[in-house]
Amino acid sequence: MSKPFSQACENNKEPIRTVLGKYLTLPATLLEIGSGTGQHGAYISGKHPELTWLTSDCAENHGAINAWVNDSNNRNFVAPIELDINSASWNTDTVDYVYSANTAHIMSWNEVEKLFRFIPQCLSSGGIFLLYGPFNYQGQFTSESNQRFNDWLIAQAPHRAIRDFEKINTLAEQHGLTLLEDHEMPANNRMLVWQRA
Predict the structure, then answer these.
(1) Is residue 85 within 8 Å of residue 107, measured between CB atoms?
(2) Cα–chain center distance at 88
(3) Which CATH number characterizes residue 175's domain?
(4) Torsions phi, psi of 168, nearest 5?
(5) Mean of the pLDDT values across residues 116-137?
(6) How confident is the model at residue 39, as a pLDDT?
(7) Residue 108 pLDDT greater than 80, yes or no
(8) Residue range(s) defining the domain that contains residue 14
(9) Per the omega criterion (within 30 degrees of 0), is the bond before 27 cis?
(10) Which residue, 188, 137, 196, is CA-closest to 164?
(11) Alpha-carbon distance 123 to 73, whole Å?
(12) pLDDT higher than 60, residue 162
């Protein structure tokens, strides 16, 4: 199949790589949850050959990700595993990093809770979880564009919405994750970074 392309992924790939790079100790393995088009993994794995980038998504998205995996020729950029957060379990070696972009506002809140229950299963002790996307603070949108985006999300599916940082961080703390930093990113996005105890 032809490779899918997201302009947003193209725009934010280097800012994301820059933040991720602050936490990388190589060699290491990273699991991306919800790899989407696969663009982030193709780019960042090419910049960090000692970082094994494991892709994952629901089965219907694997064709798109594989198109980027096959085209990249990065040996450290791995074909996707099937991972549905509603039934996800981890039965192999833990990973050093978990990364997910633009997923929390697409998932239902129940699925967000399941995501944070899943993270400690696959993340090594002392490992890092990075979550990218838009977030509200104290129940308030950080920009008019985020409010419009939120309205559009809900129109697409009522369970979708930009999540509150405070609620997300409470979930993280309940599952043994400590917030290290909250990075401001372009286009009114954030990168939340936690470490497993």
Answers:
(1) yes
(2) 15
(3) 3.40.50.150
(4) -65, -45
(5) 98
(6) 95
(7) yes
(8) 7-196
(9) yes
(10) 137
(11) 27
(12) yes
